[in-house]
Fold Anaphase-promoting complex subunit 5.
Amino acid sequence: MASVHESLYFNPMLTNGVVHANVFGVRDWVTPHKMALLVLLSELGRAGPQLGLLERRRLNRLLLPLLQGPDMALSRLREAIEECCPHLAGSVHIRLKLMAEGELKDMEQFFDDLSDSFSGTEPEVHKTSVVGLFLRHMILAYNKLSFSQVYKLYTALQQYFQKDEKKDGADENEMELTNPEELDGKMEKEELDGPLREEEIACSGPLSQKQAEYFLSQQASLLKNDETKALAPASLQKELNNLLKFNPDFAEAHYLSYLNSLRVQDVFSSTHSLLHYFDRLILTGAESKSNGDEGYGRSLRYAALNLAALHCRFGHYQQAELALQEAIRIAQESNDHVCLQHCLSWLYILEQKIFDSCVLLEHSVNKSLHFGLPYLASLGIQSLVQQRAFAGKAANKLMDALKDSDLLHWKHSLSELIDISIAQKTAIWRLYGRSTMALQQAQTLLSMNSLEAVNVGVQQNNTESFAVVLCHLAELHAEQGYFAAASEILKHLKERFPPNSQHAQLWMLFDQKIQFERAMNDGRYHVADSLVAGITALNSIEGVYRKAIVLKAQNQMSEAHKLLQKLLIHCQKIKNTEMVISVLLSMAELYWRSSCHTIALPVLLQALALAREYSLQYLASETVLNLAFSQLILGIPEQALNILHMAIEPVLAHGAVLDKGCAMFLVAKCQVASAASYTPQKKIEALESAILNLNEAKTYFAKVDCKEQLRDVLYFQARLFHTLGKTQERNKCAMLFRQLHQELPAHGVPLINAFK
C-alpha cells in the first residue's frame, strides 16, 4: 500500500504549477531570437484578416511558449511557425532576410514602426495584454541601448540569420545524397519530436527573469506531474548550475535543484540545495517583503520542517526528530498554526516508526479541519484508514471514512488526493482479498482525467497513485494467468516510470515477484532462486519469505524452517499480520512434508484466528483449505468436505488461478477418500464427480503453466480411470503423466503430502 504522506513536503515554489521567482538580477534585453518573434508579431498583425480561424488559433497557442521560453535557433522557430501557418513562416523569413542583409537603419526603422501597434482608437495590440507587454519591454530595452550595443545587436542578428542559411544549405546537400525512404523516416521522427522539446532547448547564456521563471515553473510542474517529460537529472542540474552561475542568489533555482537531487536519492546534494534555498531566501529578504516582519522566522521554521521531511525520507529518524523539534519550537514562538499542523503530521510519521498511535493522527485531522486545511485533513484521514485497515477494521467502516475524505477532495478540487484515495481503496480491497473490487477501483482511476490544470499539455498521470494501481493491475492479471497482459502493463510502467524515477521501485518489485511465481510454477527453482536477491534488495521481508519458499521446494526443510522462524519473529514484532499468516501457512506445509501432521494443526488454527481477527477473508479461506487438507491426511475426509464448502466460494470468486486449481484438486481428493465407505453405485458417482473436478483443476493449472500440479492431477486421474475400468482414458493420462514426470523428476515426496 502506497504511502500517503509523500505530498507533505512544503513546496513554496509550486502554487498551481507557477514558480514565484522574486529575486533575479538579470532584466529583459533584446536578442536576435526576440527580434524574430517581433517580426512574427508584426507579420501576424498585417495578415490578420487573411488568416483562417484554425491558423489563428494555432498561432495563438504557439505564441505563449515562444514568448516565455528560452531562445532557440531560427530553423526551429521556422519549423514551429510552418506547422501552424506556412505562408506566415515565409513572410517572417523574407522580412528577417531584408533586415539582416540590409543596413542598420532598417533595424532602427523596424523598432520605430513597432510603436504604431498601440496607436489609434482600436489598436492592433492592447498595452496590457501578453503580447503588448512583450512589445513594450522590447521597445524599452532597445531604446536603452547605446550605439555600440545597437551595432552588436545588428551583428548578432546577421550571424543568427547566416547560421540558419548555412544550415539550410547543408540540409539541401544532405537531401540530395539521401534516398527518399530514409528522408521520410527522418521527417516522421521530426514530426513526432514536436517543435518545442525541452531537451533541445539549452540555456547557453544568461536567461532573462521571465525566461528563468518559465523554465523553472515548467520543470517543477513536470517533476510533480510527469517526471518522464522533464529534463534528465544530469541535464536539469547542468541547466540549474548555469542559472546559478549568473545569479547565485536565485533561491528558487536552489529549490528545484533540491527536488532534482531527490529524484536520484542524493542525500548530500539535496540537503546542500535545501539549505542554500532557505539561506538565499533569508539573505535576499524575499520572504520579508511578502510576509512582513514574520518573513525571517517563517523561512527558519519551514527550513527546519523541510529538513525533517528530508531526513525522514532517507530514514534518518533521529536527525528528523531533532529538526522537527526545532520547527515546532519556532512555530510555537510565532504562533504559526499552519506550520504546527504540518509538524504534527510529520510527528505522527516519526512516532509510527516506533509505535502505532492514532491519537496524534486524530488530533491532526481535527485541528486541520478547524484551521481550514483540507489537504492536510484529507491526508490524515487517508493515513488513519490505512492504519485501521492493518488493524483489521471492517471494510464498510473504512469505505465510509474514505467517502468523507472524497467529499473534501471534490469540494476543494484536490485531484491528487482523489487519485490517492482511489489507489488506497484498490490496496484495501487487495488486502482483504477482494480482487474483483480491487480491479474495479483500479479501472476507475485509470479511466479518470485529472482535474488539475497542468501546463505544456501534461496530464497528472505519472504520480505514485497511478504507479500503485498499475502494479496491482499487473499482479491481478498474472494471478489469473494472463501473463502477456501483465507483461504489457509492466512494459507501460517502465515507459512511464523509468528506472531512475522515484516510483520505479514499485514496478521493479512487482515485476520480480511475477517472474518468481512463474518460475516456481514451471519448476525452475534455480531461476526463482536467482530472483530472490533482486526482491530482497527492494523488500527484505518479501525476499526472505521467497527464499524460504525456494528452499522448501528444494526439500531443504531445516534451512527453510530456520528462515521462517526468524521471519515470523520479525513480522510479529513489526505487526505485519499479512506476512505472519503467510509464514504460518508455509510452516504448516513444512510439518506436513516432515510427516508431523498433528504439529501443523495448532499452527493453522493460529493463522485462522489471526486472519479472522484482522478481517483478511481470502487468507482465512486459504487457511481453511489447509485445515481441510490436514483433516484429509488425518483420515477424516467427510469433515474436510464439510469445511471445504465454507472456504471454496471466496477462493473461486476472488482467488488466483493457482489457488482455484489447488482447491478443486483438494475437493477431488476428499471425494475419493470419502467414497471408500459408499455403496458401489454411489462410489462410482463420487469418483466420476471427482474426475470432473480434476478436469477443472487441470484447466486452472494449465492456464498458469504449473507443471508439477498438472503431473499430480494426471496421476490421480489415471488411478481413478483405472478404478472405473476406463482403459483408454487411463492410458492417455498415464502417457501425459510420463512426459511431465520425465521433464520434472520427483524429489521423493509422496504426492498426497502437498496441498499447493
About this structure: The chain has a mean pLDDT of 80. Residues 341 and 367 are 7 Å apart (CA to CA).
